[in-house]
Amino acid sequence: MKSLRILIIALSLCFILPLSACAEKEGFQFKKQPELQQTKPKKPVRIKLRRSAKDDYTWELTGDDADEIVRTDKKLRKMLSQQ
């Protein structure tokens, strides 16, 4: 008889505890993280490369990030000076 009562109490706790946890989730609020909302993919630097009749190269660089444009310009100058 004691084991039956213990079994009934254990089973009732197994069903009551998850229900109370579900009730707490209703008060849960979703918060957005602003640093994730403001992240945008970087646009690549566009390069317009031209070769003159004297085999000299010139280029135009366009883009949104000035630092990235400067880095791309340095890379182009380095690559063309090695040839």
Oligomeric state of the chains present here: single chain
User: Number of helical runs?
Assistant: 3
Tell me the span between the first and last alpha carbons. 94 Å
Helicity range: 40-55%
Polypeptide structure, described:
0% of the residues are buried. This protein has a domain at 42-83. Strand 1 and strand 2 (57-62) form a beta hairpin. The protein has three helices and two strands; from the N terminus they run H-H-E-E-H. By secondary structure, it is α+β, with helices and mostly antiparallel strands. The N and C termini lie far apart (94 Å). The radius of gyration is 33 Å and the shape is rod-shaped. It has helices at 2-25, 34-37, 66-82; strands at residues 46-51, 57-62.
Q: Which features does this protein show?
A:
rod-shaped, 83 residues, two-stranded antiparallel ribbon, alpha+beta
In short:
This protein is an alpha+beta fold and about 80 residues long. Helices cover about 55% and strands about 15% of the residues.
What is the secondary structure topology, with strand pairs?
Elements (H helix, E strand, L loop, with lengths): L1 H24 L8 H4 L8 E6 L5 E6 L3 H17 L1
Antiparallel strand pairs: 1-2
